Amino acid sequence: MIRVAVVGTGGIAGICHLPALAAEAGRAEVVAAVDVDADRLAAFCAEHSIPAAHTDLAEMLDAVRPDLVHICTPPFLHAEQVVTCLRAGAWVWCEKPLCLSLAEYDAIAAAEGPDGEGPYASVVFQHRFGSGARHLRELTGKQTLGRPLVALCNTTWYRPPEYFDVPWRGRWDTEGGGPAMGHGIHQMDLMLSVLGDWEEVRAMAGRLDRDVETEDVSMALVRFTGGAMGSVVNSLLSPREESYLRFDYSDATVELRHLYGYSNADWSCDSPHWQPGEDLPSSHAAQLTALLDAHQRGERPPVSGTEARRTLELVTGLYASALTGRPVRRADLTPDHPFYARMNGGLSL
């Protein structure tokens, strides 16, 4: 039995993580929870029948020795908490963003165990794991739909002004960015999982309406190593909300329209080869299944290592381009780059 601890007992833990863990009750059990709010922690543990409650992460790791820790805390806490768990020998599954810079990402990677042994850190990018995305990656790999040429990746959501009353939201040092970092990153990760490595990004970002430090809208053009080109829109100002991806191949077009998660019915394609099979919605549960499979095999889990870093690199490149007004190549993002340690490179919009 895989022994699991949950760190952070807010909405995402109860709404997404605990139901996913309940579906895996045959091989995973929640043995502890951690939160600095003792009252909320007690209520969470009582609701979900969790035996051990701790207000200190290090204390929990020492007392419980979990195999896997789910990190469900605000973004600015992630890097330190992930490293602490890894050094204690626990695997980690962390809500996005895994951390607030490439420098923090590399510190997390350095704290992982060796390949084939672990422990490892994986980030929640659940949209990769629905049956539609898996089918599209298979068709793309076999070139069944022809060569990928054009992609559209739009996350047009709406967050009212009071959404940003939470102190850590909308700030570079606590959230790491605006909709590109905290919202559209999901769709961008799905796009990258289909089209692979990117080479160059040209972007703009603006603070158009919300009282925040970060952007509330960004737009980007991306060139991929395989030759395809894509456009990206991330917005928190769009009253008619939608998550939309379009992939144009030389022989077919594939589209996905959803909001926070999809099923097979949300995909469309004009090719007879589009047959995604059994309907597996994108969800925390779908990704957790893959993570636990990897844990039981002792293998690096999906959406970790260089694979997850690639997505953070694209967000970093987007901000670097938007804030400097210059195109950014992926190869430019070395440790001496101004945006390696801070997503805004020390600049302001």
Give me a quick take on this structure:
With 349 residues, this protein is of the alpha/beta class.
- Tell me the domain tally: 2
Number of discrete helical segments: 10
Element pattern in H and E: EHEHEHEHEHEHEHHEEEEEEHHE
Q: What would the principal axes of the Cα set say about the shape?
A: globular
Helical/strand content category: alpha/beta
Mean model confidence by pLDDT: 98
Give helix % range: 25-40%
Give the class-level CATH name of the largest domain: Alpha Beta
Q: Could you please say which CATH topology of the largest domain applies here?
A: Dihydrodipicolinate Reductase, domain 2
Amino-to-carboxy terminus distance:
49 Å
pLDDT < 50 stretches = none
How many strand segments?
14
Radius of gyration: 20 Å
CATH architecture of the largest domain: 2-Layer Sandwich
| Strand order in space, largest sheet | 13-12-11-7-10-9-8-14
Main pleated sheet: 8 strands, mixed
InterPro entries: Gfo/Idh/MocA-like_OxRdtase_N, Gfo/Idh/MocA_Oxidoreductase, GFO_IDH_MocA-like_dom, NAD(P)-bd_dom_sf
Domain GFO/IDH/MocA-like oxidoreductase: 134-244
GO molecular function: nucleotide binding
Pfam families: GFO_IDH_MocA, GFO_IDH_MocA_C3
List the helices and strands and how they pair.
Layout: E1 2-7, H1 11-22, E2 28-34, H2 38-48, E3 52-54, H3 57-64, E4 68-71, H4 75-87, E5 91-94, H5 102-111, E6 121-123, H6 131-142, E7 148-158, H7 179-182, H8 185-195, E8 198-206, E9 217-224, E10 229-235, E11 237-249, E12 253-258, E13 267-269, H9 284-297, H10 305-324, E14 328-329
Parallel strand pairs: 1-2, 1-4, 2-3, 4-5, 5-6, 7-10
Antiparallel strand pairs: 7-11, 8-9, 8-14, 9-10, 11-12, 12-13
Helix pairs in contact: 1-9, 4-5, 6-8, 8-10
Domain Gfo/Idh/MocA-like oxidoreductase N-terminal: 2-111
GO molecular function: nucleotide binding
Pfam families: GFO_IDH_MocA, GFO_IDH_MocA_C3
